[in-house]
Amino acid sequence: MAKSFTVFQDVELSFTENLIPTHIPVKQYDNQARKVRCRLYQNSLEYKVSTDTIVSYSATRPDGAVFQYSSETRPDLVFVDDGAVILTVTSFMSEVYGRFPIDIYLLSDEGDVIGSFSLVLNVARAAVKNGKIATLTAVQQEQQKGVLDIAEDNSVRSFREKKASDGALINAGYMVLEPQIFDYLDGDACVFEQKPLQKLAEEGQLMSYIHKGFWQCMDPAREKQVLEKMLATGNAPWKKWED
User: Fold this and answer.
1) Which element (helix H / strand E) includes 198?
2) Separation between Cα atoms, residue 177 and residue 164, nearest integer Å
3) Using CA atoms, how far apart are residues 85 and 40, in angstroms rounded to an integer?
4) pTM of the predicted model, to two decimals?
5) Which of 125, 142, 166, 221 is 20 to 30 A from 10 in CA distance terms?
6) Which of 215, 231, 29 is nearest to 123 (CA)?
7) What residues form DSSP beta bridges with 177?
8) How many CA atoms lie within 13 A of 83 on its CB side?
């Protein structure tokens, strides 16, 4: 039975020499294992890799950590499908940001090298290190904002709309989002603070950064007047300049 999998990126490479390195872009702390399909060409003709070929790939991360995966020991991560090599970018590979080459070797069942090729993994630095799709800023404020139920590890267990006189930790509105967030949006009529954030919290993909410093929103005129009074009386903690 054929394996069922989703391909993150398709690449075409020469089985003899690749003058221009092929880059695989991923995000640091990516929480998804991403599969790359490598189609090989030799003398402008597609080279079909035999299903009984042993495939091994390895590299050294920028921090010196070494990894190596083989179709013999980890057939879930690297295998041959329809003549192409399928390899997986694991979370361990994307843990450290930077660029580094990955060497892929094709071996016969006797262990003889049939050929090799290389890719460059380009791990973009993440803004936060929790590996979640969404991270929002939480503050303690007695206002009518979206209310959060936050666990000890700062994961958001639930998100609900504001209620008067809540007094709980609230959503301050500043967020860091990964590209996968678009999978949670359903058209222009989608209200982000409702179904998307609620679903992220239910799936364990919503984290919080608890801000303990000064924070004050300025939605109604009353809040604007509060901030203006603080500035006029010299009690504005955000004012770092001289008049």
Assistant:
1) helix 195-202
2) 28
3) 8
4) 0.58
5) 125
6) 29
7) 134
8) 9
Whole-angstrom distance, CA of residue 178 vs CA of residue 204: 14
Q: Where are the beta strands (DSSP E) in the chain?
A: 7-14, 23-27, 34-42, 45-47, 54-60, 66-70, 78-81, 84-89, 98-107, 113-124, 134-140, 147-150, 156-160, 169-177, 206-210
Share of the chain above pLDDT 70, in %: 87
Count Cβ neighbours within 10 Å for each residue of 95-109 and write b for 16 or more, e otherwise. bbbeebebebbbbee
Quote the Cα angle for 155-157-163, to 5°.
120
pLDDT in tens, 169-227: 788 888 888 888 888 998 888 888 888 998 998 988 888 888 888 888 887 888 889 89
Q: Which stretch of DSSP H or E encloses residue 201?
A: helix 195-202
Cα separation, 108 vs 162, in Å, equals 63
Q: Using an 8 Å Cβ cutoff, are 128 and 94 in contact?
A: no
CA distances from 59 to 54, 94, 102, 104 (A): 17, 12, 5, 9
User: What 3 state SS string does 59-83 have?
Assistant: EECCCCCEEEEECCCCCCCEEEECC
User: Given a cut of 70, is residue 63 above it in pLDDT?
Assistant: yes
Chain centroid to Cα 103, Å, comes to 24
Length of the chain in terms of residues written: 243
Cα distance between residue 215 and residue 170, in whole Å = 11
